[in-house]
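Please predict the structure of the following assembly.
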Amino acid sequence: MRVLEVDAERGLALCCAQAGERASVEIGLVEPVTAGELLLVHAGTALGRAGGEPGP
Amino acid sequence: MKFVDEFRDAELGRVVAGEIVAAVEPGRHYKVMEVCGGHTHSIYKYGVDDLLPSNVELVHGPGCPVCVIPMGRVDDGIALAHEPGVIFTCFGDMLRVPGSSQTLLDAKADGADVRIVYSPLDALRIAKQNPEREVVFFAIGFETTAPSTALTLRRARAESVGNFSVMCSHVTIVPPLRALLESPDLRLDGFIGPGHVATVVGARPFQFLPDQYGKPVVISGFEPLDILQSVLMVLRQLGAGRATVENQYARVVPWEGNLRALEIMAEVFALRPHFEWRGLGFISQSALRISDAYAEWDAEERFSVPGVRVADPKACQCGEVLKGVIKPWECKVFGTACTPERPIGTCMVSPEGACAAYYNYGRFAREREVA
């Protein structure tokens, strides 16, 4: 989901999915995030961000 | 959307499929298990298996969270839902999973206050809105979902929400993979690793597959091109006589996982000594309970839970499907007595269940093929 707006104080972000639906997402596991970033969201919680580097 | 559209490119898919054909040895049969139910869903949704040569067989693994919950555990949830004053919350998939005498949906029809939530945080919100009621969240899922439950419990403690508790049925992915590899029923050549679980735990926990069993594993994304490329990477390892952990899903999965998620899970959960898996039986240290530090929010401490072991219906072959021993359409009741509308087994309930995925996307093609 793409981050639209960040509420750092509450640890939440308003995010938008590919189909256009919006949801409030817990970002405690990936902070800090900024608007425009793509997050992997599962059960309302961001687990990671897209665009990482390969491992060893 | 970036990272999605380019992984659904049909032309590129055909190119990778061609490379797969070139990578296989004629006369050799390859069995590759996709561990995660999300992969199973994508394989049938996008027809990935139709692009593979006939000697490359995809075997569906045990990684569908709803599918592995045993019937007795469903009964425990239903018993809690019937407790006076309880609002019982769960993911939508769980509502239609058959218990021994009814489903949570039946319990709701009988008057129990059962509500679907998208996230455990929604359950916590319901608890704050209903301070005079007890709100229980039925937590299921692998390491992908467990961090969300852990964060919610941490919030419940920070905000002193006393009328909220969790019935924890989270499971972990490595122990059932070990159990499958120890089983004489199944000979596997390699694995498509679970991309979303690996986002949390990293790629390292899968190192035992090559190190101890000599099996290649490729952590994979969920788009059709991801899966095709991962199959190719497994086949290339096999062709070269190599076995290692590779990360096809590097755009999302860091090698070390999400350390913050692992830290909070270690704080909120503890390993159960053993847990019953549908079709796989009891597996040691394969599930999570609420840790002593958070026992106040443990529904199994707060309420009396029957905890009775219930055998699966005789007609249901979910166990064999979950172990990859039979294909969904080989089950005696697939598509006849057991359908997504009236499921007998869990594999027909969740969209990630092999039977539901196959029924919804592939059944008619298979019938044509058989005919």
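The longest strand of chain B covers residues 56-63. The interface with chain A takes residues 1-4, 91, 118-122, 141, 144-145, 147-148, 151, 196, 199-200, 203, 247, 250-256, 258, 260-261, 264 of chain B (CB under 8 Å).
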